[in-house]
């Protein structure tokens, strides 16, 4: 567990606050865009705020570095890959600091090692253990903007480490927690979190607020706005997150925070979907203690994640049927493993389908309102959408449907729950 104090969750009044801002690769993808980021940071600093900026490598740079490694060897060591990939962010922090200084805004750049973002020693996917905030606070007190390289840290032996997918978001949230920042702002190519993907439902509405719980569910279920790891981190340390567009000058974005009385009204906050789903079924497995492990254990041993699971006892009472979903990219491998398992267990048949999708409705309002599932199923039935599997939790309901029905189903659910309208619906 990372050692730090919990951040203030009261939010900010846009004046005299400590703000951590994170800009992704697209936002800093060229000298011109870096200049626009510098302009934005300076405006925040000119209002009297202390600002810490976390940046990713320039868009395309990580792929370029990976390509260079591939030109040298097909099996680079994880340690040296971390050394290589960390250079991308180092370029960005230097350029942004130069751009800020050129605008009369003093700035200091820091690599993960210089900040002393201490991690474990798992190269390529390290976990943050501790952050030393003394140097950053000293620079802020001196009137500097602090620019920190995202995605990277250092282990106890002094080795450069990287945090893996979504690492810059995680760096920003961790710094916000360590510094007791008033808010952590994640600047992306969208202006907030929407009720669903606007490319599927043009009437999708940007949410002013969403809870950590809801955002975690949305991220795990297919929403690409934020990485689940950073949302989980923010929720653990009570760091208010705000998603904003780096390409728009104004706008409040979406605030991600803890549930409060004001936020209990919406029944459903959003609809997430995942196209990368596949379903596997094994029929006629002998029904005995431990058979679930015998079926799913070899799948787990192959590092294949299983999502939804359904087990049914056959009419004869002696056999059981298993159906589960995996990522579509793992479908072929998982099916081969399941076929071998079925033969060893004496199961009757293995089948599969890699043309399915998962659609989920998410909302904390489910806790206190009945009839949500009924509304969902009625809306899908009305459009002739066949449900293959169902899974529920306290604040979500997920269904598996044919991939051809994805857009029809999402639009139907968006209409059924009136998500284009602010406020609530009755059930």
Descriptive overview:
The longest helix is centred in the first third of the chain and has 25 residues, at 78-102. The two termini are 42 Å apart. The protein is globular and about 80 Å long. Helix content is 33%, strand content 26%. By secondary structure, it is of the alpha/beta class. It has 2 domains: 18-258, Acetylglutamate kinase-like (Carbamate kinase); 271-416, VC0802-like (2-Layer Sandwich), CATH 3.30.2130. Helix 1 crosses helix 3, helix 2 runs antiparallel to helix 3 and helix 7 runs antiparallel to helix 8 (228-236). The chain contains 12 helices and 18 strands. A hairpin with a 5-residue loop joins strand 7 and strand 8 (160-162). The protein has helices at 31-46, 61-72, 78-102, 112-115, 134-141, 167-178, 212-220, 228-236, 291-301, 331-345, 372-382, 406-416; strands at residues 18-23, 50-55, 107-110, 117-119, 128-131, 145-149, 152-154, 160-162, 183-188, 209-211, 241-245, 254-257, 270-286, 306-313, 319-327, 349-362, 389-393, 396-402. An 8-stranded mixed β-sheet has the order 3-6-2-1-9-11-12-10, with helices on both faces. Strands 14-15-13-16-18-17 form a 6-stranded antiparallel β-sheet. A two-stranded antiparallel ribbon has the order 4-5.
Features:
427 residues; alpha/beta; Carbamate kinase; VC0802-like; eight-stranded mixed beta sheet; six-stranded antiparallel beta sheet; globular; disordered N terminus
What's the CATH architecture name of the largest domain? 3-Layer(aba) Sandwich
- The number of distinct helices, counting runs of at least 4 residues, comes to 12
Mean pLDDT: 89
Largest sheet: 8 strands, mixed
Order of helices and strands: EHEHHEHEEHEEEHEEHHEEEHEEHEHEEH
Secondary structure category: alpha/beta
Q: Which ranges are low-confidence, i.e. pLDDT below 50, for 5 or more consecutive residues?
A: 3-14
Shape: globular
CATH third-level topology of the largest domain: Carbamate kinase
Strand order within the widest beta sheet: 3-6-2-1-9-11-12-10
Query: How much helicity do the residues have?
Result: 25-40%
First-last Cα distance:
42 Å
Strand percentage lies at 25-35%
Tell me the Rg in angstroms.
24 Å
Assign the CATH class of the largest domain.
Alpha Beta
How many discrete structural domains? 2
